[in-house]
Amino acid sequence: MNRRDFLQTLSAGIFATASITELLLGRPVIAADAGGTRFRETATGQDWLARWEKSIVGDARNRYCDKETGEELGWKVSPFLNGFYYGYLATRDTKWIEMLMDWTDACIRRSIKEPDGLIGWPKGDGGGHESDEYVSDSLLGEAMMLRPVVLMSDVIRKSSDLKKRYGVKAEGYIELAEKIFEKWDSRDCWREVKGGGAWVVPNFGIDLKKGGWSSGYAERKITGFTNPDNKENHIARWMLAMYDVTKKPVYRERAKGWFGVMTSRMKLRDQGKYFVWNYWEPAGPWDYKPNGEPKHWVGVHPNGGYYDIDVEAIVCAFEHKMVFDRSQIELLIATNRDFMWNQKVEGARFQRLDGGEEDARWKNGAGVLWEALVPYDETLRRIFIANHNPAGWGGLSLTPWFLAIANSSE
User: Fold this and answer.
1) Is 15 inside a domain boundary?
2) pLDDT for position 118
3) Which of 35, 102, 163, 241 is the most exposed place for a label (fewest CB within 10 A)?
4) What pTM was computed for the model?
């Protein structure tokens, strides 16, 4: 998003200003108010910062970094790593760098060497389920864990002061992340498919009884299960981070491959006004049972949080000038703001993106605010500010992220 486009999206009020930094780490920066007060410096911003810090420091005592493996490296460890990373960007306090390193090192210490000599954190079948035959790493968990680590490492090595203190460790983290990518690549988990490419959950792991690889290793090139969209999108964001940090084309190509598939799955409805897409779709022959049925149901998921993840990745791709353009961002804004939203700023609620029935398992979660669009639409920003809980689980990373992009002095 360039400076001119972003200025055109601003309207009168707290987000109107004459001076805006064009981008902060790929994100447009939220403007100051007419008097020059940045959001972070307002009473609300200061309250958010204080409540967030108390929350993340308190919750960090659970030390998920000392015990989680598999997918939980993503779902339980990465929210803290992202919080520490964005916490540093929002405050420039190095204690957040040190907390990120503490958690990262705790995870690395618990990795094990696997049959191919590469390290991992195996648990279950690699796709979030238990297996009686083997345990396997989770690409999703490792991608989510490593993304904030490599981004923080890049910040460190671009600052002479930080590089003196943390540079060696930062380079080590980047080297580790590259080795983890090579692990998944060498295990044939990337597949070229119609429209681009996708990552699959492998059908093998470490044999629980005999050690070594389980029986599925020999067929690894043709078996597996394509990750759902939200997981592919988390992995693609890691790929973009890896490209940003290393500039190696392979990471950009892999991200672009997936986003090509993602955009092909997004369909227009209501005379082209809104988007809709399924949670999962078959990507290749490995996604079908012997009788020809898909291995998973196809449709819109009743948990709206998964689509929030998708949109975050789509916006990230757009900001990297990859696959998605401004017209698609505007359609996503319309879908979230004009169709899904109940039109109430206070007590805002969102329905499913297809208007479907709410599932009792995800009460009040059929649809959610797509926070990644907040920098691009004034109405969504007002909804976010009015309803955001800076001390909630989601606030671990969202609060410092917003405070960082709302600081136009950086």
Assistant:
1) no
2) 97
3) 35
4) 0.92
